[in-house]
Every structure is written in C-alpha cells, then in structure tokens.
Amino acid sequence: GALGRWAAEFAAQAGVPPAGLRPVPPVWCSWHQYFDTATEDDVVANLRAMDDLELGIGVLQIDDGYQRAPGDWLQSSGRFEDLPGLAGRIRDAGRRAGLWIAPMLVGRSSELLRDHPSWVVRDPSGEPVPAGHVCRQECTALDVTHPDAAAYLSRVLRTMRGWGFDYFKIDFMYAGAIEGRRHQDVTGVQAYQRGLRLIRDAIGPDALLLGCGAPILPSVGLVDAMRVGPDIATDYEPAGGNPSGPSQRGAARNTVARAWQQGRFWVNDPDCLLARPGVQRREDWAALVERYGGLRSSGDGLRNLDPWGLRTTRRLLVPSPTGPIT
Fold first, then answer.
1. Chain Cα centroid distance, residue 130
2. What is the pLDDT of residues 157-215, one digit of tens each?
3. Which string of DSSP letters, residue by residue, matches 29-88?
4. What is the 3-state secondary structure (H, E, C) of 87-110?
5. CB burial string 88-117: b at 16+ within 10 A, e below
6. How far is CA 189 from the centre of its chain?
7. Which of 14, 119, 122, 291 has its CA 20 to 30 A from that of 180?
C-alpha cells in the first residue's frame, strides 16, 4: 500500500497521463524459441499458426536477429529478405507489427562505429565506454547528445515506423545512462531521458513502446510498458548461479517485488509466457503471469505447444490490465 501510494504520486509528477495507461494487446515474440537465429520463414510460420490455432494475438514482435550488427539497424543479417514486406504481411493478417531494437548500443565491429567514431560515449582516456556483450558482439554506447548521432537514430526509427512497425521493444537501455564523455556535458541520466524522448518523437504517439533493461525511475512517464525483471528461461535456476541471469526464479522474484509499479508507472512486463513441453515448472510460471502479469506475451514456437500449453496460452494471452494489482 505505501509503495503504491508513493508510486502514484511519483507517476503524476513524472507526467504519466492522468487519463490512465493504454492497454497493450497480447504479443508473440520470437526470442525465446529462436533467439538471434530467427528467420523470416520462422516468423511467417508462427503468423499462420496464430490463425490456425485460433490465438488472439494482437502484436507479432520480431526480436534480435534481423539486423547486421548493433547500430547497423537498417542493414540485414541475411535471414530477413524483406522486413518492410513482412511488416505488411503481419498487418494484412490483422495484427500489429512489432520490432526489437537496442537503440543505445553500438557494436564495436559495426559500420556505424567505423564511419562515425565521434558518435559514441568515451571514457576519460578517450576510449569508447564498454556497454556489455550483446547480440554476440562487444558494444559501446551511442551518444545521443551528438546532433548527428541523434539524427541518425531518429532516422532509423522513423524508417522502421514507415515500414509499418508500431510496437517497439527497446532493450539494453541502461547503455544510454552510462557515465562518460559526451558531445554535451550532461549526466548519464540526463542523456538517457533525452534519448527516450527522441525515440518517442521518432515513432510517434500512437506507437506502443516497451522498455527493457532500463533504469526504472528515469523511465517513468516515457514508456507504455516496462520489463520488470531479467529474462525468463526454460530452466528454473539461472545458469552458473548468476542471480541476474535468465531464469524463472529471477524473473518471478522481480515480477512479484515490482508488482506495485503495475498500473501506476506503466504496464508491467514479466516477460514471455513459456508453456511448451520441456520448460521447467511451467505451471508455476503460468500461474505467476496470470496473477502478476500486465503485458501478456508468448515466447513459444506455437506449433510446439502441447494441449496444456495451447489451452494455457489461449487463456492467458489477453489485453493487458491497466490498473494496479489488487
């Protein structure tokens, strides 16, 4: 109760619309079945399965794997022949087209870094700041205070919006808040919020925006939904004992602990429902998604669902609640 009251006041000060939050349609995401090896054929097969299996999925979101490198977002990995055409097929099927992007990351092997080395955040010695290993590549952070870097990111997102994508999952957003030397002398959090506003301006007010891997309080009022924990996984325990690594235990712990944010800051995203055979303790995860989940999404290859998984997916994939959890 106390956290909920504090959150409501904080959200009002942060500009969360007083009319309330927008519901998010049920989502299908390619990541947890195909990871970064997803192909256009995989996406089309699941698009067909949604109709064949009578699943009320409103958004089909393509995750990591379509792009050549972090930063080179408009250059294909070779596994997607026609991304604009695929967005059109999704829309023609009566669903919204969604896309994953890590807009604050720049791969160290990317053309973007090679051609525009001044567009990234640097440490005191002048080297690009480390921002983790993502998409199987070492990355640094984009400096959105550089006007040319900001214009580039805006152009990428406007292009994707023009292709027909109107649901964006923006991941690894912590990179935008990393401290370092920027074109303008601002803090990491100030740069982060500037980047979030740039993203919203580029995709427009009607597109849905899901934050992920993001600082919590600086994001309030700037996204429609937020992942509130680490990635779900087919295993209950995290690999190597890393508490922040992908696992059902970590995802569940964080989803429950941050339940007070639902309906006040945004729609909470617990991560995808995994209901296919082979997922450890899948019944427990489904029950937690049902009790605490705001955004409802599926991470299964839909043809891999057994009868229990299909029934559970049909039942739980509903438009997100927008009010607090009671």
1. 21
2. 999 999 999 999 999 999 999 999 999 999 999 999 999 999 999 999 999 999 999 99
3. ESHHHHGGG--HHHHHHHHHHHHHTT----EEEE-TTSEEETTEEEEE-SS-S-HHHHHH
4. HHHHHHCCCEEEEEECCCEEECCC
5. ebbeeeebbbbbbbbbbbbbbebebbeebe
6. 19
7. 14
> Could you tell me if 59 and 28 are in contact, meaning their C-beta atoms sit under 8 angstroms apart?
yes
Global pTM? Answer: 0.98
Is-contact 286 271, C-beta < 8 A?
A: no
pLDDT tens digits, 215-253: 999 999 999 999 999 999 999 999 998 988 999 999 999
Distances (CA, A) of 198 to 93, 291, 309: 30, 34, 39
Q: What amino acid positions are annotated as catalytic residues?
A: 171, 231
Tokens of 101: 């992007």
CB 170 within 8 A of CB 213: no
Largest CA distance in the chain: 58
Residue 90 CA, chain-centre distance (Å), reads 19
CA torsion 60→64→68→70, rounded to 10°? 120
Classify 230 as helix, strand or coil. coil
